[in-house]
């Protein structure tokens, strides 16, 4: 799950003066958290950008929220302000945002396993949404933010997050064995396992598997697989020796190159060629 999101146009974000620090979670959180990314944008000129669908739940702990940040068209939430410390569930469409001003905080890339345990609610409520951390965790979110702000540096803040998250998820909700197993199969195969095969493996109908996935993961298996294929394609296209287009399509389970192009544009808002030309960038590790 390296490179857990795509931002378009990435050059505008990459050029913004900022401090960025990456951290890995404690091994206790191996099934729950992938990475921590700290950022300190001293200033961002007004910029509109799109973030492709995520393979993770993104949890932000903001020490300084940007004064301007709102969803824009074609997002269904166009015109709405994005809450402080937004939590982004899994998505099956790009998220379009306009942002300006300084911002500082930590972004946590969580697996659905971790988010389900942390928030204790059906993850369908987070799908294609941006919900404030305060609205989900209440006073605990405010206390955590205060403690992180008082820590002396980013590594110390990462360790605070380790302890807080480990304590929370230890007693949180747990995915059913069938959903957890199907999720692992989908991610390990980069979305190449057929949904009917997954349903057969866990002994459920496709309809029941899709319903349980929406509840515990946030999206149905077909949508999860589509996003996983996108990220697999990006990893191949940005490798040291990228394969030919047709080979990328075949390796990622697309019917042909046209299928790859259609899915890529639908999920990112740009073609693979535009991505390679530098109009997008990967965020995360």
Automatic annotation (TrEMBL):
Keywords: DNA-binding, Transcription, Transcription regulation. GO terms for molecular function: DNA-binding transcription factor activity; sequence-specific DNA binding. Signal peptide: none annotated. Transmembrane segments: none annotated. InterPro entries: AraC_XylS_family_regulators, Homeodomain-like_sf, HTH_AraC. Residues 177-278 form the HTH araC/xylS-type domain. PANTHER family: BLL1074 PROTEIN (PTHR46796:SF15), HTH-TYPE TRANSCRIPTIONAL ACTIVATOR RHAS-RELATED (PTHR46796). This is AraC-like DNA-binding protein. The lineage of its organism: Bacteria, Bacillati, Actinomycetota, Actinomycetes, Pseudonocardiales.
């Amino acid at each position: 799950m390296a490179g857990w999101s795509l931002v378009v146009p990435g050059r505008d974000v990459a050029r913004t003066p900022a401090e960025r620090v990456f951290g890995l979670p404690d091994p206790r959180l191996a099934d729950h958290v992938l990475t921590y990314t700290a950022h300190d944008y001293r200033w961002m000129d007004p910029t509109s950008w799109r973030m492709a669908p995520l393979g993770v739940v993104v949890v932000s702990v903001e020490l300084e929220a940007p004064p301007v940040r709102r969803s824009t068209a074609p997002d269904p939430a166009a015109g709405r302000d994005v809450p402080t410390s937004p939590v982004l569930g899994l998505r099956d469409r790009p998220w379009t945002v306009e942002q300006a001003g300084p911002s500082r905080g930590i972004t946590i890339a969580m697996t659905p396993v971790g988010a389900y345990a942390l928030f204790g609610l059906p993850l369908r409520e987070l799908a294609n949404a941006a919900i404030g951390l305060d609205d989900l965790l209440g006073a605990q979110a405010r206390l955590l933010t205060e403690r992180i702000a008082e820590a002396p540096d980013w590594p110390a803040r990462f360790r605070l997050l380790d302890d807080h998250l480990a304590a929370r998820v230890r007693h949180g909700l747990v995915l059913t064995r069938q959903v957890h197993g199907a999720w692992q199969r989908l991610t390990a195969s980069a979305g190449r396992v057929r949904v009917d095969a997954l349903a057969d493996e866990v002994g459920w109908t496709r309809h029941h598997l899709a319903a349980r996935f929406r509840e515990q993961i946030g999206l149905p298996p077909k949508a999860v697989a589509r996003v996983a294929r996108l990220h697999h394609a990006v990893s191949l296209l940005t490798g040291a020796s990228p394969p030919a287009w047709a080979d990328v399509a075949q390796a990622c389970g697309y019917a042909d190159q046209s299928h790859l192009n259609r899915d890529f544009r639908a999920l990112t808002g740009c073609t693979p060629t535009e991505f390679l030309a530098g109009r997008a960038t990967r965020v995360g590790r």
